[in-house]
TrEMBL record:
InterPro entries, sorted: AAA+_ATPase, ABC_transporter-like_ATP-bd, ABC_transporter-like_CS, ABC_transpr_CbiO/EcfA_su, Co_trans_ATP-bd, ECF_ABC_transporter_ATP-bd, P-loop_NTPase
Family: Belongs to the ABC transporter superfamily.
GO molecular function term, any single one: ATP hydrolysis activity
Domain ABC transporter: 2-234
CC per GO annotation: ATP-binding cassette (ABC) transporter complex
Function of the protein: Probably part of an ABC transporter complex. Responsible for energy coupling to the transport system. Part of an ABC transporter complex. Responsible for energy coupling to the transport system.
Protein's UniProt name: ABC transporter ATP-binding protein
Coiled-coil ranges per UniProt: none
Keywords, alphabetical: ATP-binding, Cell membrane, Membrane, Nucleotide-binding, Translocase, Transport
Length: 263
């Protein structure tokens, strides 16, 4: 369980980026959304100790982030940054994924076992000897997830995992997230992509100007006036509501609602 209690973060220049956030998450997919500058990244960086609270506290599986290093916390909360290609520096996919586990001081066999497991988890088996730069956008995103997974964290923070990806690559990332969720990981998804929220999230937390504006179900979230937060309802949901089919999360649910309704 990750627990955030009355969290305030004030940057050195005096900017109050978080103003009293309370939040809990377990093994679930939570979408963290909000307009630019609302505090999403600032909040996420508190969960693995990259930032420390100005006031309040963050407890990760019983560990207060004030009392633990980023290295310790990163074993529990993995952070996959936006534009992951900037973080690759090894000449092969295998070495890239092996880097983290090697630094944990694991034996060569254990490192190899973790690399194979992480690459399998993101469907990149067979890519071991490729250079990271030769991968497609979706493959790079999955490689970045594998690098973090190899540390075996229970929770994963994914920052805009589908931004800039075409539909097919996005789908492959979505499938990986579903699989990880099924294996008991908790996933915090920072995103502006409302289609992704509709498709994947189990809960939504909306930040606005450093405060929590909403925390609840996906259905309730999409009944808010999203324009107030610079966000747009997904097209699928707009169509579904217009034709009276109500809240659906996928095209197949929409078809089911229509077919069911006409019986
Ligand atoms: N190092 C810093 N020093 C001062 N202010 C900062 C710093 N980092 C972020 N901020 C400010 O804190 C506020 C919250 O920023 P943050 O990056 O957490 O927002 P965000 O919701 O992730 O935005 P985006 O959607 O644009 O990524 C913004 O006003 C930002 O300008």
């Amino acid at each position: 369980m990750i627990e955030v209690k009355n969290l305030w973060h004030i940057y050195e220049n005096g900017k109050e980026a978080l103003k009293g956030i309370d939040f809990k998450m377990g093994e679930e997919v939570v979408a963290l959304v909000g307009p630019n500058g609302s505090g999403k990244t600032t909040l996420a960086k508190h969960l693995n100790g990259l930032l420390k609270p100005t006031k309040g506290e963050v407890i990760v599986d019983g560990m207060n982030t004030m009392e633990h290093t980023v290295a310790e916390l990163s074993r529990v909360v993995g952070y996959v940054f936006q534009n992951p290609e900037h973080m690759f520096f090894e000449e092969s996919v295998f070495k890239e994924v092996a880097f983290g586990p090697k630094n944990l001081g694991l034996s060569e066999e254990e490192v190899e076992e973790r690399v194979r497991w992480a690459l399998r988890a993101v469907n990149l088996e067979g890519y071991e000897e490729r250079t990271p730069y030769s991968l497609s956008g979706g493959e790079k995103q999955r490689l970045a997830i594998a690098c973090v997974l190899a540390m075996k964290p229970k929770y994963l923070i994914l920052d805009e995992p589908t931004t800039g990806l075409d539909a097919r690559s996005s789908e492959s990332v979505v499938n990986v997230i579903r699989k990880l969720r099924g294996e008991g990981h908790g996933i915090l998804l920072i995103t502006h992509d409302m289609e992704l929220v509709l498709e994947l999230a189990e809960r939504v937390m909306l930040l606005n100007d450093g405060r929590k504006a909403f925390d609840g179900s996906v259905e309730e979230f999409f009944s808010l006036n999203l324009h107030d937060y610079g966000l747009e309802k997904p097209e699928l949901l707009r169509i579904s509501e217009k034709i009276g089919a109500g809240f659906v999360r996928s095209v197949s649910e929409l078809i089911e609602a229509l077919v069911g309704g006409s019986r």
